[in-house]
Amino acid sequence: MKKYAFLALAACAAALAGCSGGGQGASDDAITVGFSQVGAESEWRTANTRSVKEALAAPEFNLKFSDAQQKQENQIKALRSFIAQRVDVIAFSPVVESGWETVLREAKAAGIPVVLTDRAVQVSDESLYATLIGSDFVEEGRRAARWLIEDSEGLEGPVRIVELQGTVGSAPANDRMRGFKEVIDQDARFSIVRSQSGDFTRAKGKEVMEAFLKAETGGIDVLYAHNDDMAIGAIQAIEEAGLKPGTDIRIVSIDGVRGAFEAMNAGKLNATVECNPLLGPQLAQLIRDVHAGREVPKRVMVEEGVFTRDQAAAELPNRKY
Ligand code: GYE
């Protein structure tokens, strides 16, 4: 036991990233899972981490959890340490889409199956991972745009939109940008006048929105934020600029976290597109299947919807994240 605890500690040190769990209470035939999380950048992410930890608990699982603090470099180190420890299955949520070929090849050579959760990777060889469980981010972007078009019925253009993008190079930022643009481009009233990354955080969302407000002397009609946290940060910037969020500037964001429902209830956010972070139970099942050598679908989708201000009060007590 001592020896294993020491090895685990050494591996964590080698990973140079937050590392916890491992071993305690796990049964002898537990499935050892190395999980590399993106970070703790948003309410969505903390709910996702909770769900994963609950679902991959002992005694059935022996979870080695590592937090990459939104750095790909840390994730690659964590994956290499999982390979060195010969875990049974690696699961991870890749911070960005590209740059994974080498380390995934190392996992494959070691015979360790990889389950992607939440975010996708771009690889030339699809056999480098077993499956991906996550949301359809392109569709989420389309839903945000469709809501905006429906809500703007009768409104004459031009409608000036600013966009707060998620982490540069991440699957949700790329896809949410694409899906939104695809739909908005079909209506001549709308134009995206500015688009910049707020890295999925409140602090950055606020900072970039401040810059947008200063630069756009022609006025801003709509804010589209790739997640609720950035919208919540931007709401503060809008209020500090003496404007009314939700009225002077219409706001639509993605995730559907509690903070978004509270902002909608206060009239400051107009709509949120749901992105369910509670992937733990489905992830656990995929890990069991992959570990047992059972066939799994290459892509597992999560189902979700759209919520508006008039639904916020009724829905708030039901929210689990
Ligand atoms: O929308 C955002 C988080 O990858 C779907 O990451 C996830 C996104 C989520 O930081 O809040």
Q: How many strand elements?
A: 13
| Cα shape | elongated
Report low-confidence residues grouped into runs of 5 or more: 14-18
Kindly report the oligomeric state of this protein.
single chain
CATH superfamily of the largest domain: Response regulator
CATH class of the largest domain: Alpha Beta
Helix content: 40-55%
| Cα Rg | 21 Å
Structural class: alpha/beta
* Beta-strand content estimate: 15-25%
**Helix-strand pattern, N to C?**
HEEHEHEHEEHEHEHEHEHEHEEH
The order of strands across the largest sheet is: 1-3-2-4-5-6-12
CATH topology description of the largest domain = Rossmann fold
CATH architecture title of the largest domain: 3-Layer(aba) Sandwich
Separation of the first and last Cα atoms: 36 Å
The hetero compounds bound to this protein are: beta-D-fucofuranose
Mean pLDDT level: 93
The total count of helices amounts to 11
* Biggest beta sheet summary: 7 strands, mixed
Give an overview of the whole structure.
This protein is α/β, with parallel strands linked by helices and 321 residues long. It folds into two domains: 2-135 and 277-303, Rossmann fold; 137-275, Response regulator (Rossmann fold, 3-Layer(aba) Sandwich), CATH 3.40.50.2300. It has eleven helices and 13 strands. The strands form two sheets. The chain has a seven-stranded mixed β-sheet with strand order 1-3-2-4-5-6-12, sandwiched between helices. Strand 2 (31-37), helix 2 and strand 3 (61-67) form a beta-alpha-beta unit. Helix 7 (202-215) crosses helix 8 (228-240). It binds beta-D-fucofuranose. Residues 41-42, 44-45, 118-119, 172, 200, 227, 229, 254-255, 275 line the site of beta-D-fucofuranose. Beta-D-fucofuranose is lined by residues 41-42, 44-45, 118-119, 172, 200, 227, 229, 254-255, 275.
